[in-house]
Amino acid sequence: MTSPPATAAIVQPDAPDAIDAAARRLRDGKLVAFPTETVYGLGADATNDRAVAAIFDAKQRPAFNPLICHFPSTDAVLRSMRLPDAALDLAKRFWPGSLSIVATRPVDCPISRLASAGLDTVAVRVPDHQVARRLLEATGRPIAAPSANLSGRLSPTRATDVIASLGNVDLLILDGGACRVGLESTVVAVRPDGRIELLREGGISREDLEHVSKQSVSPVSDPDEVRAPGMLARHYQPRIPLRIDATEAQAGEIVIGFGPMSANMPKANLNLSPTGDLREAAANLFAMLHDAETGGARAIAVTPIPDEGLGRAINDRLKRGASGTR
Ligand code: TXA
Ligand code: MG
User: Fold this and answer.
1) Which residue, by CA, sits nearest to atom 31 of ligand 1?
2) In the structure, which protein residues have their CB atom closer than 6 angstroms to any atom of ligand 1?
3) Which among 138, 167, 244, 284 would be 20 to 30 A from 311, CA to CA?
4) Is pLDDT larger for residue 231 or for residue 306?
5) Which ligand is nearest to the Cα of residue 35, counting in written order?
6) Which ligand sits closest to the CA of 100?
7) In the prediction, which pLDDT does 222 show?
8) The pLDDT of residue 221 is above 70
9) What are the b/e assignments for 282-321, b being 16+ CB within 10 Å?
10) How remote is the CA of residue 326 from the centroid of ligand 1, in Å?
11) Would the pLDDT of 76 be above 90?
12) How far does residue 174's CA lie from ligand 1's centre (Å)?
């Protein structure tokens, strides 16, 4: 018996138990699409690596790109993050609202490393939509959410747009009607010294940001960095050399395996997924690379990962990491 294909379902947020049921799904590691004032988000528990991996799988993103984490209030943000004063000033003026702030991850940050796509920063936002806020409060955890569309397609501003893109995904969609802003949030990075950089234009204008921050806010000069900062090679270089497609272990290497190990490499020190599940491997990738680089080994060797589905995103990251450490 094969199980029936997954399908997305739309529910009205004011139906009895709708928000609580959606919150339970999120806490169980499943996906919920929800309205924000900008666009619909494809949400997962931001503290659960496997749930975050399911977002990348559902969107069929060709490579991991860091995700915005949503919170019900600034106080809730500050329980997971520390924000420099310049960021707090922006938060005071623009939250709840269409501004996402990228700041450094604290050491004890509960947000999944996959949501950060391996960067040492997290993007955070308090959306200005009562359905989003009720969902965030009921869930009691930050929700990681990119726009709820297949990679490369239009961002959805109605529940039916989400169905058109993600109708075959096991997904609950909270219908909040049409999004008021209809354009994704403005993304700024606030550096530890208070400097503000514009990473993506959006619902909040550069002039408004400059007025509140009393500094000139320059767009980052590298357009690649605006589109997909997570794709820059330098973000993925482990501190020790990384060798990919390894079929045998060399002296001093820590081995990260995938699936059942082969005869010439009977055992890996770490295994992204002993059963060969790409979603599990994606969920473990950055945390294992991080553990490997701090474990005292001379170098990291990773065994081959199938180049299909999420495997392509995993291999993209590994290739960048490996090319940086010649
Ligand atoms: O309005 C929005 O922002 C919507 C709703 C759902 O909140 N979300 C959204 O997410 O547009 P997404 O994944 O489509 O776009 C997120 C953007 C990307 O450009 C990503 O590169 C950037 O935010 N971003 C996320 N985390 C980042 C980080 N740690 N550093 C730099 N850029 C980051
Ligand atoms: Mg998007």
Assistant:
1) 229
2) 36, 38-39, 41, 65-68, 100, 102, 116, 119, 121-123, 125, 145-147, 184-185, 187, 199-200, 228-230
3) 167
4) 306
5) 1
6) 1
7) 59
8) no
9) bbbbbbbbeebbeeebebbbbbbbeeeebbbbbbbbbebb
10) 31
11) yes
12) 21
